[in-house]
Structures are given as structure tokens and as C-alpha cells.
Amino acid sequence: MAKEFKGKLFVFSAPSGSGKTTIVRHLLKQEQFDLEFSISATSRAPRGKEKDGVDYYFLSRDEFFQKVKNDEFLEWEEVYSENFYGTLKTEVERIWAKGKHVIFDIDVTGGLRIKRKFPEETLAVFVKPPDINELLRRLKNRGEETDKKIAARIAKAPVELATAPQFDKIIKNYDLEVALKDAENLVSDFIGLTS
Ligand code: 5GP
């Protein structure tokens, strides 16, 4: 008989600019892990080439709060002033129903909430940047944000960094190649793949 599928949840959280999105994208390409991205809902406008239903479910503020009222979120957060983000319960159901594990790229508060809701199934990973100056450099290099938005992201970093000990694992993203390998090893171990 086929082994019963037990879906896992992989949370990657970090201050903006730590490289968590790069790590998550890399893991999604590793087919042996059977991971699928949890598409968050957000009230912020799409940026650049972002597509609805791929990068995010882009909702109006009213639509977002209707879902809050209907208790459709596993967690939600005003990550930045006036910008709301949340994980819909249907995302986990959708991905587990396909026999895949869920991977999240969400903020530290949301990440820890998922861990509290699914303590056994979740591996919560904190991605640690070398220091705040490096975060600032990376955010500026990305060139996607205004100086005001970058400043808001940097302002949150110390509080976010202080949550690191609450995570199951910490990956130091000082050297990307090393961080990617560390992330692969963590996922592989948690799924129970033999290497
Ligand atoms: P961005 O606007 O750069 O796409 O994302 C801003 C922040 O919101 C990032 O730290 C991202 O990880 C976080 N985020 C994205 N989706 C969610 C979510 O569903 N819940 C929470 N709590 N944070 C999220």
C-alpha cells in the first residue's frame, strides 16, 4: 500500500532584504521536495511583473477585510503601514490535497503564528542577514522601492531580528551558496528524505 501522505509546512521568515525569497524560489525548483508556494492575499498593489494568483491574490482593502470577517485567514498582518497580507486557510488545503508540502515566504509574526497553529507539521526557519547595513545595501540594489519604503523596512529589522530564537532553525545568509545548501538540508531532513 502507498505510504500515507503527511503534508508539511515550511515557513521562511526574515527582515526584508535578507534573501528569503531567493531561498524559497531555489527550494521550489528542487522537484524532489514536492513543494508548492503558499500564495498570500494582500491589499497592496502589484509591483513590476507580479501576477494575480501567482505572486499574490491581489485584493482591495474591502475584499481583504471581508475575508478577515469570514475567518478565512490562518493568519494576517498589517506588515507595513496600510499594507495587509495574509495566508488563506484554503492555500494549505489546496496544496496538501495535491500531495505536496507548503512553503511560505511571510513575515516573522505570521511565520510564528503558522508554527503555533501547526506545531508538528511546521518547520519555521529564520533567515539571518549579516547586518543592517547589508540589508540596506540589498534593498537599495533591488531598486524596487522608494527611499521612504526602504526606510520603513529597515526600521522594522531590529524587532524582526530579535524574534530569531523563537524559530526552529536559523540560516545565516552571509554567503548565498552556503545558505541555499543549508536550506536544502533542512527541508530534506524534515521531509525525511535520505540523502
Ligand atoms: P512584499 O510587499 O515585499 O511582497 O512583502 C512584504 C512582506 O510581507 C514580506 O516580508 C513578506 O514575506 C510578507 N508577507 C507576504 N505574504 C504574507 C502573509 O501571507 N502573511 C504575513 N504575515 N506576511 C506576509
Notes on the structure:
This protein is of the alpha/beta class and 195 residues long. The chain has a single domain (9-189), classed as Rossmann fold, CATH 3.40.50.300. It contains 7 helices and 9 strands. It has helices at residues 20-29, 61-69, 89-97, 108-117, 132-142, 147-161, 176-191, and strands at 9-13, 35-37, 40-42, 56-58, 73-80, 83-88, 101-105, 122-128, 169-172. Helix 5 runs antiparallel to helix 6 (147-161). The longest helix has 16 residues, at 176-191. The structure holds guanosine-5'-monophosphate (5GP). Guanosine-5'-monophosphate (5GP) binds at residues 16, 40, 44, 75, 77, 79, 85-87, 105-107, 109-110.
Provide keyphrases for this structure.
binds guanosine-5'-monophosphate, Rossmann fold, 9 strands, 195 residues, 5-stranded parallel β-sheet
Coarse structural class? alpha/beta
Strand portion, in percent?
15-25%
Give the termini distance in whole angstroms.
Answer: 24 Å
Number of domains: 1
CATH architecture: 3-Layer(aba) Sandwich
Mean pLDDT: 93
CATH superfamily descriptor: P-loop containing nucleotide triphosphate hydrolases
Looking at the structure, the CATH topology is Rossmann fold
Following the backbone from N to C, one meets helices and strands in this order, namely EHEEEHEEHEHEHHEH
Please describe the biggest sheet, giving its number of strands, its sense, and whether it closes into a barrel: 5 strands, parallel
The helicity comes to: 40-55%
Shape: globular
Which ligands does the model contain, each kind named once? guanosine-5'-monophosphate
User: Total helix count?
Assistant: 7
Kindly report the spatial arrangement of strands forming the biggest sheet.
2-7-1-8-9
Unreliable sequence segments: none
How many beta-strand runs? 9
The CATH class is identified as Alpha Beta
The rounded Rg comes to 16 Å
